[in-house]
Amino acid sequence: MSENFRCNCPITSALDILGDKWSLVVIKQMLFERKCTFKDFTESTESIATNILSARLKLLEHFDIIQKEKLPENKKTNIYVLTEKGLALTPTLIELTLWSNENVQEFHPDLNINQHLESAKDNKEAIYALVITEYKKYKHTILNN
CATH number, domain at 21? Predict the structure, then answer.
């Protein structure tokens, strides 16, 4: 996979990896919705096309944001889990959620805002740590069944 970065800017380079329409959606689904199989992603309400999903999963795996594993009880089924690099995006996703709640909801009143994330305003570091800890427990469970 070619690593064609547009320039040396850290923001632009991050967007070269995460700035498409789907990468953060996939990461969000893994972190908050506990999706981990190809089928899980294709059945989501976001309706990602299978060819796009395959490309995004490969890209995220290439940059060590996710890793592909096998289900312990079914070696035919691939599962995708967040790595430490992927989990490091937790504050960004929470901040984006809070920003959307404050700035997009007026245009999209039916936004489904997670009420637990609402409390992030009061103690962001604790919420980041809680989300990461809960994901790590989930990851351990699915990898060690």
Answer: 1.10.10.10
103 domain residue, yes or no? yes
Contact between 82 and 30 under an 8 Å Cβ cutoff? The reply is yes
* Cα–Cα distance measured from residue 69 to residue 36, given in angstroms and rounded to the nearest whole number: 10
pLDDT of residue 2 exceeding 60, the answer is no
How many angstroms separate the CA atoms of 5 and 1, rounded?
12
| Mean pLDDT, rounded, for 115-131 | 80
Cβ(23)–Cβ(17) under 8 Å? yes
Q: What's this model's pTM, rounded to 2 decimal places?
A: 0.90
Residues 125, 90 contacting (CB under 8 angstroms): no
Under 8 Å CB-to-CB from 142, ≥6 apart: which residues? 36, 71, 79, 81
- Domain of 64? 10-143
**What domain count does the chain have?**
1
Element (H, E) at 102: helix 90-103
Residue 2 placed within a domain: no
Asked whether 44 and 103 are in contact (CB, 8 A), the reply is: no
User: Can you name the residues that pair with 79 across neighbouring β-strands?
Assistant: 69
53: in domain? yes
Question: Does residue 121 fall inside a structural domain?
Answer: yes
